[in-house]
Amino acid sequence: MDTPGTMIGNVNLKGDYYAAAFCAPEIAAKARAGQFVHVRIDDTRNDWILRRPFSICDTDPEKGTVTIVYKVVGKGTAALSGLRPGSICDIMGPLGSCFTPPPDATPVAVCGGYGAAATFMLTRGKKGVLLLGARSEADVILTDKYEKAGFDVRIATNDGSAGTRGFVTELVPRLLSERPEEKFFFCACGPHPMLMALARLLRELGQSGQLSIDHRMCCGVGSCFACVVKVNDPGSADGWRYARSCAEGPVFNLEDVYTGD
Amino acid sequence: MADLSVDLGKFQLKNPVMTASGTFGYGFEYSRYYDISRLGAVVVKGIRMTPSHGNPTPRVAEVTGGMLNAIGLQGPGVEKFLHGKDYMPFLRKSGATVIVNIWGTTVAEYAEVASRLGAEREGITALEINISCPNVKAGGAAFGTDLKLAAQVVSAVRKATTLPLITKLSPNVTRISDFARAAEENGSDAVSLINTLSAMCIDIETRRPVLANKTGGLSGPAVKPVALRMVYETAQAVRIPIIGMGGIMTGNDAVEFLLAGASAVAVGTANFVDPFAPLKVIDGIDAYLDRHGFKSVRDIVGALA
Question: Considering the entire predicted model, what is its pTM?
Fold first, then answer.
């Protein structure tokens, strides 16, 4: 067995999207859908020091490996994309809360872009549905893996280059009208505006679910209060409070999600 | 193994390594990684009378050699801190040496918080008066960058409690040693420095400041030389003990602060990089002392050759 943190693979999925696998037996044994790892990509340098959080896409508890799927968006992810198998990163996890669909409901992953990584481990439970939204075909990833796992995959893109043209939220009422008798549980991860629109829609439709909402993170363990998001709090004068997405989230219950402003 | 215990006048610590306020939550968050009673002290995130939301997001940004933060002192308020299970009741059970960082928006509020904590002081070793947060409009830096106001806050807190007092100083002043002297003259038992340096970064694509608060406090390895110079100057100016901090990542960094005149140190931003950083700093100081044949950490305080 390799040293924990050893990179096993780092492959380009398409465009700026990559999947990296690491040896991390303890994390692989415990990780649940929606949780994340906090990675120090290069601990030899002091010029950029902070860790980067990544959703855990998949694990292999027997081999002791963890896979993350990431998009190159800055210098951290650029450096990560350049690492070769055998490189070692310092990986903390699994961190944060997880999706907990009830056993009698069909899980519906509603994702924006590589948000689909955060819900992939839901495919280990009841056969469900993936509703994936993306800007265009170039940002559609992981759908083959979901299909292989037996999920019903439906896509909406802003430009219509894959699936239907429009927003992913438009796929929700369509699913409900096609399968009116079924009990669904929605598990969402994606950009903030998408999640807020989805939360309002699910409430209007009387559906239940959970949303993975986070913000620019620092410590990853709840100590620094950087990554806060607003959650409903009837006890507060304003009706909301800031919750730490790393420690109290990133997965929040639909009823707790504050959609006010 | 050398003697790591330090004497801060009104109180003693088992070793010189504390956590910097705001970088260690309320201790609970790191207790899943190690026994926090191994630290010299746990300095908790700032407490005022009432709960506060803190600033809008984004609250942090990474910069070369460190980070900016503008959290804005989000907190539970003094009553929840004293009685909420993950706060003081947890800390009492943990066996950690606890220092409570306090702040207010008025001089009276500082005194009131000190008085409330003093009334239920079991498990509290000292208070750290935060007159240096750069990220709140009222309180914080407004007190820490005005000599008269700084003196008033320290004096009011001194009258409100018999708990040992540490005054945490702002580096965003012309001469930090003047503020250290004002703290000493008004009854502070120690000073801690530095808080973060007021700073800014801009996203050139959106042409907006990265932080919602526009400006924030710079911390991390980048600030260490500045902090060290300020500790050194302050050590020449006051007799009360100094707690040095600013960019300490390793035991060797901490040793620099001790040599410059700090009796103890605090680890801040390094907690975000490595949860075990404070323990590694303790071990690093110990290894340095052994390597140089010092029997006690006290032997190197201000011991520049």
Answer: 0.95
